[in-house]
Structures are given as C-alpha cells and as structure tokens.
Amino acid sequence: MVDFTSNDTNTTTYDDTVYAAIINDDILDALQAAVVTPPLLAMFDLSGQPSKAVDIPIADAESAAAVAEGAELANTALSTSKATLTASEVGIMATITDVLDVSSIAATRGAQMRQMGNAVAQKIDVDICALLAGFATSVGSTGANLSLANLFSAIYTLEAANAPGPYVGVLHPVQIADLRTAVEGSSSGIFTGGGVRSGAGEIGTNEDTGYFGNFMGIDFYQSTNVPTANSAADRAGGVFSKDYALGMVQKWPAKTEIMRWAPIRGFVVVVSSMYGVGEIVDSAGVEITTDA
Amino acid sequence: MTEKKTRAKDDKGQFIADDPSTPDVNEAYVQEDKDSGYVNTKKFKKQTLKFTAQGKYPDGRKVPFKNMKTMKALQVDPDGITGNIVQLPWEATVNNGVAGDPNDQIGLKKYERKGFIFCVETDGTPIFSTLWDDWSEYDAYEAKKRKAFQGEAGKFGANATTSRTMAGV
Fold first, then answer.
1. Contact B22 A138 (CB under 8 A)
2. In B, which residues are within 8 Å of A94 by CB distance?
3. Which fold has domain A42-291?
4. How far, in Å, CA of B54 to CA of B52, rounded?
C-alpha cells in the first residue's frame, strides 16, 4: 500500500508560492463613539472675525411692582451678565513616508485621513460631554442605576428653572440600558400605551448614529464619551436645553492640510480645528450621575 | 492588553448563558466584585476617595487615552458635600464661560463659584490623576503618558509668531 500521507506537497513545503495573507482592499475604521453632541449646542461662528472669543450677553430678570395712583415710580437699573466662549486650536499631525505610501494598498491614504479626522471629531465630543458634570444641579445616586424618577426629577428641575425647551439628553450606553430596563419594568399605563414603546429590545434601534430615541418629549443620545464619576463607579450624563445651555464657538471647522517634506521623503498631514465649548446658562442643564 | 474573563458555570459544570433581561449584567461570565479594582483610598473633606490602578477602570478594562486634562472635584449642594466626585474639564478650550478672563485661562473659577471643591492637596497638587477617566493617584506616570502622546515640540514650532507673541493686533 502506498503511503499517501508521507511527503505530501502542501502550503508549508510550497510556501514560496503562497501569500502569508491577502490584505483586504478596505480598512475598517476604529470603533469609536458616534459624535452626537455638537448639533445640541448654540453655535457661534467667528470665522473672519477679529477675535478668538465671543461674549453672549444674558439679560437679568427684573421685576415690576404695584404703584399707587399719583405716586412716582422709582428707576430700576436694568442689568446684564455675560458668558464668554473662547476658541483655541486642536490638531493632530502625522508624517507619512513615501515608502509606505507607494507600498500599501490603495485604501490606506483614505483610512489615514479618516483616522485623523475622527480624532479631531472625538476630541470635540469629549470636550462637550465633559461639560455635563459641570452643571451645578445633579440628580441620581452613586452606585444606583438610572431610574425613571431620576429623569422626572431632572425634567422638573429644568421646568422649575424656566429653562426653555426642547430638552435633550446625553447619556452613557449603560444609563440608556438602565432606562430601557426601567421602562420595561414599569407597570404604569403611560408606558404600555401608544405614546411610548416599551420593552428592552424596542426602544432605540438607531444606535449607530448615537441617537437613542425620544422619551417623555426629550431626544436622548448615547455616547461612550460621557465621562465617569466617583472613581469610575458612575457615569455623569445630563439633560439640558438644546441650543441654549451649552455653546460652541468656532474659528474654523476641521480642515486637512498636506505638506510635502522632502528631507524625510514623505508628506506631513495636519488636521486641525479651532473651537471652544462652554456653558452659557447653568440652570438650563442638569447632570445625571448614576451607576456605571 | 486583552482582559481575561472567566466563563460562569452551573452546578453541573455547564456554561451559563447571558440573561437578556439584565442588559447591564452578563451572566455568562463570573461577576467581578465592583470594588475589587480599587487599589487605595484616602480621606479628603470627610469623604473617602477611591483610587483605581493607573490607566485602568475598576473592572480591569483599560482607560482609552483622550488628550484632555480634567480636575476631579467634590459636588456641593445646599445640604453640604453630596459625596459625588466628578471630573471637570481643565483646559482653555473647554472654558465654561471664563477662559476669556486672563486670570483664569484654564477655566476652573466658575466651578469654584458653583461650589465644587477641587480634590487637591494644600499646596495645590491634584490628588487624582488629571487624565480623562483615569481615577488613579496623581504621580509622574501621567506626566510621562501625556508627554508620550504630545511628542516633542517640532522644528517649526520654535520661535513661531503667534497671537501671544504679537498681542494687541
């Protein structure tokens, strides 16, 4: 009997004819949070303006009083306060050698640009999410899952402060998961009626854009850029007045520039943006800190 | 680094599946004690500050590096210190309305006015790491980490004419 198993010709013996691996034509983007927050802020465009900062005047509330017939009214000095948003630069630079550029698959250049563009976009989102912990009013308890009562308390706080609608929420996915569970577990008629869909698997099917859904009239977004609190035991999200509580000033949006740099036989790619984000009206936002 | 998790097994030695009704808990794996990831504690303003390992969440996952400086602070409400500690942005870019004030280029004064108490030593040294989402103790590690990501000042940066050198125009 011939031994067919000995000395067979395989990819090990004939290895000079086999690629170690075929590289896919496309490059997958890194898994990153969807950038959801910039459209929720009041935007101030400073492009072409001779300043790095914008002042937003805020009229103070004044009160009128009853006056007796024939009595002279006393003057009230009307006053204002202001919030200042200052822009500064954010950027990322990469020097890419000619050797890599001419020796890699066609999709490499595009992937590099996306990597750098995403880095700047993430930075903006992280900066904005960090503002949520700066609201002076906070609801939720450390170590306790987000509850419907927490949300209602946040909404009431905003309404009691006369914060203008519409309200929007930015929460961490674990807080959104708590919200789903809370809705599913609620026996209240409102959650089983037609207005709000219930069930852990039903709410928020468009997660790839970071949009969770509308709940109690509030558009909720989820992002892993929502920061931790209490030694990473919690997450600090928030609910606030859209286009009012937080603001963003921009000198230039993310732009990509490429410079040829012959001494290194390569090219330098710079992606930069000049912007600033900040709080305009503190009482128009509420922090929601709940278990991570 | 890949975190190793242990699959949970029942009495017969068979793997346990995840329960979809508890989205925040994966029953398929052995549940780690949430407090097991803290390596040290410290008393500050009668509050217990818990520190994680450097660059790690309490559950052992690695903290993704975000090039942003933060300051950890105690929250205060009318009843006193709430016990909540949050991380606040500490950069000129994220200004909270006061970065335009030359006396407060890093934008922390407004937080003080709101009542936040920064977790700092008496000489102003931060108690927590100032890295984003990093709740470890402040030390030279983060200076090294930050430098590694920021890199050296480039050749083109030396003596550049900026809005700072050419003020008043």
1. no
2. none
3. Major capsid protein gp5 fold (3.30.2400)
4. 6
